[in-house]
């Protein structure tokens, strides 16, 4: 699935369809900032050949960044990073047994020499992965950089316009 008619700049992959409720937040942020992306399930354990093909061909297909979300053993981000020189952003997906701590530790504890940028567990991590991917794309794309700057200015404006934390009375 591709987010629009432009060639994708970011690949958003996940180990299972069940990861979509978290990873959709990365896609939503990319779409909000005008960054074309592609999404697909690529399992480190069930489809290792697909994983290697996807990662090895990512740069050739025009991707600049890969966001990889995974839960449990969470090998997907590290295995993808081992097969490409593109930046890989890992999103730990919350697991039932250990609430995502297992996923976080699996992703963040990469050996020296294979880098994976690891984000927070769950929705916040996916949202920030989308934002960080846009920032990386924005290094070479002034339109995306301007969209990130506008997003940040909007966040600032929202806080300054509503400094009172109490609910507004009707």
Q: What characteristics describe this protein?
A:
170 residues, alpha/beta, Rossmann fold, five-stranded parallel sheet, 6 helices, 5 strands, 15% strand, N5-carboxyaminoimidazole ribonucleotide mutase, PurE_dom, purine biosynthesis, 5-(carboxyamino)imidazole ribonucleotide mutase activity
Outline the secondary-structure elements.
Elements: E1 10-14, H1 20-32, E2 37-41, H2 48-57, E3 65-71, H3 76-81, E4 88-93, H4 101-108, E5 117-118, H5 123-138, H6 142-161
Parallel strand pairs: 1-2, 1-3, 3-4, 4-5
Helix pairs in contact: 1-5, 5-6
Largest sheet: 5 strands, parallel
Q: At the third CATH level, what is the topology name?
A: Rossmann fold
Q: Which structural category do the helix and sheet elements fall into?
A: alpha/beta
Physical arrangement of strands within the biggest beta sheet: 2-1-3-4-5
Distance between the termini: 43 Å
In the predicted model, the low-confidence regions spanning at least 5 consecutive residues are none
- Overall geometry comes to globular
Helical run tally: 6
Q: What is the overall pLDDT average? A: 95
Strand content: 5-15%
Radius of gyration: 17 Å
Q: H/E element string?
A: EHEHEHEHEHH
Highest-level CATH class: Alpha Beta
Protein name: N5-carboxyaminoimidazole ribonucleotide mutase
InterPro entries: PurE_ClassI (IPR033747), PurE_dom (IPR000031), PurE_prokaryotes (IPR024694)
GO biological process, one term: 'de novo' IMP biosynthetic process
GO molecular function: 5-(carboxyamino)imidazole ribonucleotide mutase activity
Would you kindly provide a written description of the structure presented here, covering whatever features stand out?
- The protein is α/β, with parallel strands linked by helices and 170 residues long.
- The protein has a single domain, classed as Rossmann fold.
- The protein contains six helices and five strands.
- The protein has helices at 20-32, 48-57, 76-81, 101-108, 123-138, 142-161, and strands at 10-14, 37-41, 65-71, 88-93, 117-118.
- Strands 2-1-3-4-5 form a five-stranded parallel β-sheet.
- Helix 1 (20-32) runs parallel beside helix 5 and helix 5 packs across helix 6.
- It is globular and about 55 Å long.
């Amino acid at each position: 699935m591709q987010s629009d008619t432009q060639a994708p700049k970011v690949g958003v992959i996940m180990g299972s369809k069940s990861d979509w409720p978290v990873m959709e937040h990365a896609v939503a942020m990319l779409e909000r900032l005008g960054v074309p992306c592609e999404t697909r399930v690529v399992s480190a354990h069930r489809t290792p050949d697909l994983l290697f093909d996807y990662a090895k061909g990512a740069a050739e297909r025009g991707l600049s960044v890969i966001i990889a979300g995974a839960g449990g053993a969470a090998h997907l981000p590290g295995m993808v990073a081992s097969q490409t020189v593109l930046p890989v952003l890992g999103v730990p997906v919350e697991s039932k047994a250990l609430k995502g701590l297992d996923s976080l530790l699996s992703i963040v504890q990469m050996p020296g020499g294979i880098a994976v940028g690891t984000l927070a567990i769950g929705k916040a991590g996916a949202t920030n992965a989308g934002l960080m991917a846009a920032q990386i794309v924005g290094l070479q794309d002034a339109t995306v950089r301007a969209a990130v700057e506008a997003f940040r200015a909007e966040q600032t404006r929202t806080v300054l316009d509503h400094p009172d934390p109490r609910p507004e009375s009707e």
